[in-house]
Structures are given as structure tokens and as C-alpha cells.
Amino acid sequence: MARRGGSRCGHYCLRGETVKILFLDDMPSRVPMLRRGEDVEYVRTSREFVEWLIRYGTPDCISFDHDLSEEHYGSDGGYMNPDRPPTGTDCARWAIEKSFIPRVVIVHSWNTDGSRRIANCFKGTTVEKIIVRPFNPNHPHMWEEL
């Protein structure tokens, strides 16, 4: 059902509507699972995330991981530690601050505290739907609810 678009942003035809999806995750091993018939745009770091949004604008959907570095896998998840790289929560806050607010947010992180922080960032914004579902390699099509 996916329809390939001509630009670098992921274009999907879901439920009769074309949807742009940006997938933020530090694990490249997940990308081949996402690319089964789809064309999701994938970014690994907060820097790539910011650069993509500045270049292409707000997608219809952003799917967030929280832990974007090996350093985030400690007990505090790297949250708000200036000595660690930015997390998905930091990316979400930046996107909101700069008004890159998508229609749909998916939080696919296995970090439950980080997932909650990302989802809470978007409460009270113009986001129409927030889906919190950890990434499942046996069912990577988490945006079928769109």
C-alpha cells in the first residue's frame, strides 16, 4: 500500500492519505526491518534530526527513540545530563520549541521513563495523536494506526 515519493522524506499512502514519517533511532539494525516496502526517512542522532527538520520541514509523523547513544543506557537514561549526548526527549523539546510539531507522534523506545517524557512533551500541543509502543522487530509497522 505504500507509495514511493520523489523526495528524501518518507511518503506513505495509508488509509488513502499520503503521510510523511521521520524515524529517530540510534540502532541501524532496525532500518532494514522498517524498509520492507516502505520509505521511512531515518536519522540516527539529534544533529541529523535537527538538520532534517530544518531542510524538509515538519513531517506528518515523527517516531522517537529515547536512548540515542550507548551512554544513555545507564540507570538514569542520560536524561538532562549535560555530559551526555542529547536524548529523544531533547529532540522532542527542540522540535516543539522551534514549532516542528507533527500531526502524529509515535514513541517506540523501550525506555519507559524516557517514553513517558517524550509523550508528555507533546501534551497540550497541536499533535492530534500520540502512540506509545516499544519497537517490536516481529511487527515493525507501528504506524498502521495512523
Structure description:
By secondary structure, this protein is of the alpha/beta class. Strands 1, 2, 3, 4, 5 and 6 form a six-stranded mixed beta sheet that branches. β5, α4 and β6 form a beta-alpha-beta unit. The longest helix has 11 residues. The N terminus is likely disordered.
Helix content: 10-25%
What count of domains describes the coordinates? Answer: 1
Structural class: alpha/beta
Specify the number of helices.
4
Uncertain regions: pLDDT < 50 for 5+ in a row? 1-14, 72-80
Q: How many strand segments?
A: 6
Distance between the termini: 13 Å
Radius of gyration: 14 Å
CATH topology: Rossmann fold
Overall pLDDT level: 77
Order of helices and strands: EEHEHEHEHE
Main beta-sheet annotation: 6 strands, mixed
Label the overall shape: globular
At the fourth CATH level, what is the homologous superfamily? Response regulator
Percentage of β-strand residues: 15-25%
Which CATH architecture is right?
3-Layer(aba) Sandwich
Instruction: Please state the oligomeric state of the protein chains shown.
Output: single chain
Please report the first level of CATH classification, the CATH class.
Alpha Beta
